[in-house]
Amino acid sequence: MRGKLYVLSGPSGVGKGTLREHALNNLQNLVYSISCTTRSPRAGEVDGREYRFLTREKFEEYISKNLFLEYAHVFNRDFYGTLKQDVINELEAGHDVLLEIDVQGALQVKEKMPEAVLIFVAPPSVEELEKRLTGRKTESPEVVKRRLETAINELKLKDKYDYVIINDKLENACDELRKIIL
Ligand code: ADP
Ligand code: 5GP
After folding, report:
1. Of 7, 61, 74, 179, which one's alpha carbon is 20 to 30 angstroms from that of 173?
2. Rounded to whole angstroms, how far apart are CA atoms 14 and 168?
3. How far is ligand 2, taken at its centre, from the CA of residue 39, in Å?
4. pTM, full prediction
């Protein structure tokens, strides 16, 4: 049986990565689709594990060859995209696939594959989001500021999603995601 496609989006720092890890560790049939990006790797990130790190030229080549299921210019800074064939292969092998992508990309996926299940992760408040984003210590203050500005716009699009999970207590949010997928 063909697998199902789940798309997780939400503002940077809201806890998507944390929820994703939990889902992948707890759901046997779920696989994660590794995205391509033009951003530089963070300390500890490995090419082919967190992302496929591509040059801008390579990314543009993939766009022109129509290899992406979706792609977007995120935070007005870098390109991120999901390779179409990766997703199709996994679905045809019967695996459920989880994408963790921004809202522009998620809406592109819904247009191309209406059966995809879109899940938006929202913060309990913008103040809490800022705290998490700053607490993670992976971005400079200037990048945090840009990500928060993007977050305000992303939050406006949450009604286009099939489900909204408010990531207040982590345990509850993990449980909600698991239930949606099951
Ligand atoms: P994202 O992938 O959406 O950018 P992360 O999963 O990296 O976000 O989470 C951002 C930070 O917030 C991390 O330090 C993470 O441990 C923390 N975090 C995630 N969920 C919660 C929660 N429910 N309550 C408090 N902190 C959280
Ligand atoms: P980060 O740079 O923190 O790893 O990710 C930044 C943002 O890019 C996150 O909000 C994440 O969801 C989004 N993103 C990651 N991969 C993709 C992708 O393949 N496509 C799209 N559209 N967005 C992505």
Report:
1. 74
2. 9
3. 10
4. 0.94
In 20-153, DSSP assigns E strands to 30-32, 36-37, 52-53, 68-74, 78-83, 96-100, 117-122
Q: What is the DSSP letter of 42?
A: P
The pLDDT of residue 64 is above 90: yes
Q: Which ligand is nearest to the CA of 150?
A: 2
- Å from CA of 62 to ligand 1 middle: 31
Residue 12 CA, closest ligand 1 atom number: 4
What is the token pair recorded at 137?
């210590």
Structure tokens at 28: 């046997």
Specify the residue for token string 């998507």: 16
- What average pLDDT does range 8-30 have in this prediction? 96
Q: Atom 4 in ligand 1: which residue has the minimum CA distance?
A: 13
Average pLDDT, the chain: 95
Whole-Å CA distances, 141 to 77, 81, 133 = 15, 25, 10
